[in-house]
Structures are given as C-alpha cells and as structure tokens.
Specification:
The protein is of the alpha+beta class and 132 residues long. The chain is 29% helix and 43% strand.
Length: 132
C-alpha cells in the first residue's frame, strides 16, 4: 500500500481490504510478516466494542485462513471520505467460505493510516446482512 488515503478514499479502502485478504488470509505466507504490511505494531482496533491489538488481530487471522481456504472474497465500498490520514467508510465484505457458506458483513469504519498505508487505529461497527 503506497497510495495516500486522500487520493481516492474509496479505492484506498477497497485496495486495503483486498490486499489484506489476498496477502494475509489467502496467501501461503507467514501471517505476522504479511500482516506487518497492513498494520503498525501498535495497532488498536475496536470492533463492535471488542479491543484488538496486534496479537489479537494475528490470532484472528489464523482461523480466517482456514475459513477462506478454497473460498472467495470481495469488498464493495459504498462511500468513503478522508481527511489527512483518517478515513471514514461504509463497506460490505462478502465471503464465500471453502465449504460454500456465504457471509456478508456491512462495516462502518473510522481509521487512521500511516503515509505508507498501514492502519494505526480503527473503530468499527459491523452487522451481518440477511442471508449470511
């Protein structure tokens, strides 16, 4: 990730989540090494009131790899705005697991990024969409 968030906030968010999924979840690489391309070591992510630091995010990525093995992922950014290093976005993450289970999640996110595109902090609210 090298594009700055203000270039095109929608594209930045789509590229972030697509790259994260392709390089951290789907690739057969070291999870922590790949994750370091997307998150700073001091990452703080609060998702639905649950506080995730680096270690908790790393632990979350490992089961996600098993879920997506042989599956598909896409992201649809509905809207995004940026101010400096901060982006606010509403997006839908669409996952079809390797076993064919569909999981669509709407995400409302406020996040800050470094100039090289790594997330430093994020607050998210999510909800499962009908049929998931």
């Amino acid at each position: 990730m090298t594009a700055h968030v203000t270039d095109s906030p929608e594209r930045f968010v789509a590229d972030f989540f697509t790259g994260l999924t392709e390089q951290v979840v789907l690739a057969d690489t070291d999870t922590a090494e790949a994750m370091a391309r997307f998150y700073t070591p001091g990452i703080v992510q609060i998702s639905d009131g649950i506080h995730l630091d680096w270690d908790k995010l790393l632990a979350h990525m490992r089961p996600a790899r098993k879920t997506l093995t042989g599956g598909r992922f896409s992201v649809e950014v509905h809207e995004a705005v940026a101010s400096g290093d901060t982006v606010a976005a509403r997006l839908t993450l669409r996952v079809v697991s390797g076993k064919g289970r569909r999981i669509d999640t709407e995400v409302f996110m406020f996040a800050s990024f470094t100039p090289d595109g790594r997330m430093t902090q994020s607050r998210q609210l999510t909800r499962a969409l009908d049929g998931s």
